[in-house]
Amino acid sequence: MSCNGCSFNNSTSTVTKGYDWLSDLPDTTDKSDIVEVKFKTTRKEYYKNLEKLPLKRGDKVVVATSPGHDVGEVTLTGYLAEKQFKHRIKNPSRYTLNVVYRKASVSDLEKLKEARDREKPTMIRSRKAATELGLNMKIGDVEFRGDNKKAIFYYLAEGRVDFRELIRVYAREFHIKVEMKQIGARQEAGLIGGIGSCGRELCCSSWRTDFSSISSDAALKQGLSPSAQKMAGACGKLKCCLLYELDNYIEARSEFPRQLLNLEIAKGIAKPFKTDYLKKEIWYMLEGSLGVSFSLSLKEVKDIIQKNKRGIQPEVETVAPPAQKEETTSKVTLNESLDRFDTKKPKPKRKNNKRRTNNRPKTNNNNNNNNNKNKEKFTVKKNI
Q1: SS3 228
Q2: What was the pLDDT predicted at 216?
Q3: DSSP code of 26?
């Protein structure tokens, strides 16, 4: 039994990651000398096997670069590598095919490990250098070449960045040849890696190397939610897996009418609100009723449309929403506040002056004048 990205062996009861789907294909290395080689990231290059080395998928090889050499892993050979080369390279005449030197030895792999150990501290220091120069860019990853003499700095930037001074700083501090390569949000997610919403490793970091543009129309054609937050992946863009089943949905959708019309049945007018293209079902809801819905197959919908054209309103079984039962059991509510065990101090009573002033009886102006005169007389006598 096999699944996507893993295989299960019943005899040994072990799960192996990275199932090779091309293992049962015949060897075609004699038909073409082109070899596809993968490096640390999703970067893949094509080389010529002029020495006729017996290469197979998964072998570590030393390949020529300009200048120096690098160490990578063979992913395709023979006829398949040639077909992939013609598919990915738009202008093969301008592409220079370097040669494969040899299979990687123990010393080559040890030197490659030393280069990999330098990548993380180099990336941290390179980010600080870019910040000190005030450049609007982010260093996503650093990849050292197998000979430990050149490094590729992958960066993200919204616009053009003048990093000439930054290259001088990198060359002076790290004592290597520097190559700057701009990447997008999808490539950054592939470099960093992670777990997707499906619970598996991200496709861009495990096996996917080409990133085609994905529009929201791909989600709408599959009847998925048009919300960009639900359909976005770790990179913030629409998920690559929206394209995996798109062809099946387009093929199934071609059998449906271009526009779903309202149906006239005996109980009223039914409006469509949900479509399942793979099951070939359409869900309808009665107009003016709350929750009364029913599902029809595509064949039944076409039959009802033809009957409506002849003025016939057929009977259709509808499903009413379940009635809410009265709860007879007593509900228990718990106070889950953090301070429920603390002794609460009594709140001081506040005097409401507004109420007192409003409750006072109103007096006439004449009484007020008389009171004022009495006060004046009293003060005069007291002074005498």
Answers
A1: helix
A2: 85
A3: P
Pairing of strands 177-182, 150-156: parallel
E strands within 78-171? 98-103, 138-144, 150-156
Would residue 194 be called left, alpha or beta, if left means φ above 0 and alpha means ψ between -120 and 50 degrees?
left
Q: How confident is the model at residue 348 (pLDDT cuts 50, 70, 90)?
A: low
Q: Domain 110-183 adopts which CATH fold?
A: GMP Synthetase; Chain A, domain 3 (3.30.300)
Cα separation, 343 vs 339, whole angstroms: 8
Residue of higher predicted confidence among 171 and 261: 171
Mean pLDDT, rounded, of the chain: 80
Name which residue leads in pLDDT, 252 or 358: 252
Q: What is the mean pLDDT of residues 347-354?
A: 61
CA dihedral of 313, 315, 316, 321, whole degrees rounded to 10: 110
Question: For the chain, what percent of residues have pLDDT higher than 90?
Answer: 36
Nearest-CA neighbor of 64 among 76, 50, 78?
Answer: 50
| Core vs surface per residue 146-155: b (16+ CB within 10 A) or e | bbeebbbbbb
Q: 122: part of which helix (H) or strand (E)?
A: helix 106-132
> CA–CA separation, 164 vs 328, rounded Å?
77
Burial pattern 308-331, b for ≥16 Cβ within 10 A else e, equals beeeeeeebebeeeeeeeeeeeee
What's the CA gap between 31 and 36, in Å, rounded?
14
Residues 17/52, Cβ–Cβ less than 8 Å: no
Structure token digits, residue 6: 């893993």
The pLDDT tens digits for 15-44 are 334 556 666 677 777 788 999 999 987 788
pLDDT of residue 17: 46
Distance between CA 306 and CA 303 in Å, rounded? 5
pLDDT band at 132 (very low <50, low <70, confident <90, very high): very high
Domain ranges for the chain:
2-104, 110-183, 190-251, 263-309
**DSSP H or E segment with residue 79:** helix 78-88
- Report the alpha-carbon distance of residue 52 to residue 237 in Å, rounded: 43
